Every structure is written in C-alpha cells, then in structure tokens.
Amino acid sequence: MHSQLQALLATANQIILGKDRQLRLAICCLLAKGHLLIEDVPGVGKTTLAHTLAKLFGMDYQRIQFTSDILPADIIGSSVFIADQQQFKFHPGPLFKQMILADEINRATPKSQSALLEAMEERQVTIDGQTYALPAPFFVIATQNPSHHAGTFPLPESQLDRFLMCIELGYPDHAAERALLAGNSRHSLLEKLPCMLSHTALLSIQQQISEVYAAPALLDYLQAILGFTRNTQHYPCGLSPRAGLALLTAAKAWAFLEQRVAVLPEDVQAVLVAVAGHRLRSDASSAEAVVAPILNSIPIH
Fold it and tell me: Given this structure, which CATH class describes domain 210-297?
C-alpha cells in the first residue's frame, strides 16, 4: 500500500511541477477524510491539482463553478413534481459525486456557501425532510481567490472550520516553470493519467489512518499547542477541540504517508500551518507567520 502511494505521489509530481509538499498535504487531507481549501491567485494550478487527484484515485469528479447568482438547489439538487405519478421526485445535484471541486467558492453568497456545511460534516444532505447519503469516499476541494479580489464574500468561521487543511500553491520556481513552458500541456497529460489506487484501497487506507499510534507524550505536545493558542495575546480566538482532533488526524495521515506506524511531533509540525493557519485569526501576512509563535514557544520534550 505504501509503495502504491509513493508511486501515485511521484506521478502527481509529473503533472504539478515543483509542488511536492503541497501535493503531500493534499493527499494527506484526502487520506484523513478531510476537505481541502486552496487559496491563491488564478492560474497557478488549483484546478489541475484537483483533477489530478481525481484521476489518480479513480474518483467520480464534478466541478461546480461558484458565482454570485448560484443557488443551494444548483448544488444539492431539488425535488421536481412528476405529473403522471402525482408526486415529487428528488433529482440529485452535482454534489453527489465522490470528488467535488468547488471552484471560486468565495464568489458565492453565504447562503449558497452554507449548502456545503451538512455535506462536508455529515456526508449527507437533507431535502424536504428526507436525508440522502453522499458517496464514499467523499472529498471536497474548494478554491478561493484572495479576499482583496473584487466580487468575493469572505467564508465564515463555521465554513472555514469544515476544511481540514488550507494551502497555497504559489508561483512555480524557475526550473519548474521552464519545464512547464517547454513540456506538454497539462490537459493532454491529465487525459493519459491512469487510476493508481482503487476505491476499496482508499477506504482501507482511511481506516488505517485512525489506527496510527499517538503516544501520551505526543498528546501532551498537542494539548500544549491547543492551550497556547487559547491563552496568548497572539490570537483573538484559540483552536477548538475539533481543530485539535483535525490536527491529530492530519498528523496521523502524514506519518502514514511517511511509512511510520506512530506519530512524531515533527508530523504535527509538518501539518500545523495547513491545519491551523486558516483557523487562527491573526494580522500576520501569511499562514506560516500565523503559526510561527506556536512553533517558537512550544518545545518538543
């Protein structure tokens, strides 16, 4: 299983050039049953990353373009009256796929953004009092433009907290951009990508993630991080218990990807920026700067 994951990561790196760490975090997010938010300027490969993961994991893929006039029914689906049967029938919306790309999610109104809340947390949606289960695995990748761009609606804290991780891709380095310019188009490469991990294997790995061992000393370190965020002047609001569970689960997924059976403090640090950066409100210029006080203040025993 580990060899399959390493081969999958190597293949993904041939599509998304020079972004190995971001790819590892995205894969960890999927393995941990989380959802991923990518915040960056247009044109740096956010959609390509989502499509790459969908192809490699063999998941049913649906892109939903969020706009200011999109409605919750456009996302979830709606009940339609069937005249000859004299009853309403639910027609599922694009949300009923295994992988959803919610493109430019912050261009939609808060009402439409909230259509994803139940789906992301409960893996189900409720329409007219009837509950419909979403497929398994279910993975949402949302992209958003920087908040200073025109026509955006900031995601509320409750929506941000549904995302296990938030990452930025950034511009490629010189060598990666040169290879991008000189090579084949990403679209043609995506069409040739094989499925490298079956649904059964993915679900099995997701189960194994929960079994990765976290020693009491590791939990002490994790609780020290949570306590620091709640009792410092750096942040107006500290990390919640749910954020603590998210950090632990993400660290377990990172340890699994590194072929370890137990979590190390270094695994927590590896995912800390992606897990905590968007949850801690701060005046810092970047997610790295947001969590810097944590890394500088909490020693590893």
Answer: mainly alpha
